[in-house]
């Protein structure tokens, strides 16, 4: 009886429920929306919900949530990425952002981004910060959203149409929803635990701005590497004195610029120094042991009033640093 009651609840309120769940998931809430979309498609096949209406309301919720992040990206730019890194359960999102952003962001990535965990949410503020035109953003994002939602809804719909799953679905409806919620909780807890371990490693390995400044003033010659993405550099066209600019994915190809007998300091934009720590760990694996991330990155260095090198062209605009080819 309880299972039938739950099924009746889904059938009665499923359209509103799916709008709210889809909207919340696109805003970044840890909701495991995939099985719920499939279940909604199954209900549509049973005649309890309308498939076309489901696709419409979930598309509206999806596009609305995505638009929030796009507009925040246009408004806050690289400052928003620092906030996302600071609250993220997965600090390596900074590295994924850099890898994604190295593609020329024309908006085409929005067609497939939702199928890749993490990238689907990160591509939205990145598109805003990259000033992808609104019309282009909404076109590609709407097409990508409709395809993503239609495939999942159709999966549930067709399975009910081609196989007699009705009895099984009625019996397991409550368990399917409970499983989806449980998976969401487990994923959130696992990401939270990985974040704690990551930050513990970070605190043990990073160098403070004061320590680096004293080292330079004492005549030390550390190699300082700026790992910021070009979008971040355009927002703050400054580096630490004599810093070498590299994109994270090209560091291993420029090892000749990183002598193993000198101290190497790497920094990025993310407050958790996620990219810097990842690069430091990779260099350690390659035999370069004297490498440490800078605590606080460029912002932490400037906050203490330490000198920086400014990079401007003859026209007064920031120089655009591109990836070495």
What key attributes describe this structure?
two-stranded antiparallel sheet; mainly alpha; four-stranded parallel β-sheet; 2 domains; disordered C terminus; 12 helices; 325 residues; Oxidized Rhodanese, domain 1; single chain
Number of domains: 2
Largest β-sheet summary = 4 strands, parallel
**In total, how many beta strands?**
6
**SSE order, as H and E?**
HHHHHHHHHEHEEEHEHE
Structural class: mainly alpha
The stretches of 5 or more residues where confidence is low (pLDDT under 50) are 91-99, 314-318, 320-325
Short description:
By secondary structure, the protein is mostly helical. It has helices at 2-27, 33-45, 51-76, 78-87, 93-101, 119-129, 134-162, 166-205, 209-217, 230-235, 274-285, 297-303, and strands at 223-226, 238-239, 244-245, 264-267, 291-293, 309-310.
Task: Report on this structure.
The structure is a single chain. The chain is mainly alpha-helical and about 325 residues long. The chain has two domains: about 1-205, no CATH class; about 205-310, Oxidized Rhodanese, domain 1 (3-Layer(aba) Sandwich), CATH 3.40.250. It has helices at about 1-25, 35-45, 50-75, 80-85, 95-100, 120-130, 135-160, 165-205, 210-215, 230-235, 275-285, 295-305; strands spanning about 225, 240, 245, 265, 290-295, 310. Strands 3-1-4-5 form a four-stranded parallel sheet, covered by helices on one side. Helix 2 packs antiparallel against helix 8. It is elongated. The N and C termini lie far apart (about 65 Å).
């Amino acid at each position: 009886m309880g299972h039938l009651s739950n099924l009746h609840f889904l059938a009665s309120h499923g359209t509103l429920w799916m709008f709210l769940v889809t909207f919340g998931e696109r805003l970044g809430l840890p909701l495991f929306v995939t099985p719920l979309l499939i279940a909604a498609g199954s209900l549509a096949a049973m005649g309890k919900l309308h498939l076309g209406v489901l696709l419409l309301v979930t598309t509206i919720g999806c596009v609305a949530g995505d638009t929030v992040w796009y507009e925040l990206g246009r408004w806050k730019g690289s400052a928003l990425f620092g906030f996302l890194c600071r609250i993220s359960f997965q600090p390596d999102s900074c590295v994924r952002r850099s890898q994604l952003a190295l593609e020329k962001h024309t908006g085409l990535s929005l067609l497939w981004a939702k199928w890749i965990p993490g990238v689907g949410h990160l591509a939205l503020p990145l598109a805003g910060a990259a000033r992808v035109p609104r019309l282009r953003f909404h076109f590609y994002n709407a097409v990508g959203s409709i395809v993503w939602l239609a495939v999942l809804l159709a999966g549930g719909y067709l399975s009910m149409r081609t196989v007699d799953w009705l009895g099984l679905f009625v019996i397991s409806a409550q368990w399917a929803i409970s499983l989806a919620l449980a998976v969401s909780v487990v994923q959130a807890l696992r990401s939270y635990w990985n974040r704690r371990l990551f930050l513990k490693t970070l605190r043990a390995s990073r160098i403070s701005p004061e320590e680096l400044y004293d080292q330079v003033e004492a005549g030390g010659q550390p190699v300082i590497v700026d790992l910021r993405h070009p979008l971040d550099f355009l927002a703050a066209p400054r580096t630490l004195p004599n810093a070498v600019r590299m994109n994270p994915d090209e560091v291993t190809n420029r090892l000749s610029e990183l002598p193993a007998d000198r101290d190497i300091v790497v920094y990025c934009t993310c407050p958790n120094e996620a990219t810097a720590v990842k690069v430091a760990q990779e260099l350690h694996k390659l035999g370069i042991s004297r490498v440490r991330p800078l605590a606080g990155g460029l912002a932490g260095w400037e906050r203490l009033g330490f000198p920086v090198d400014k990079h401007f062209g003859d026209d007064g605009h920031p120089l655009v640093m591109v990836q070495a080819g």
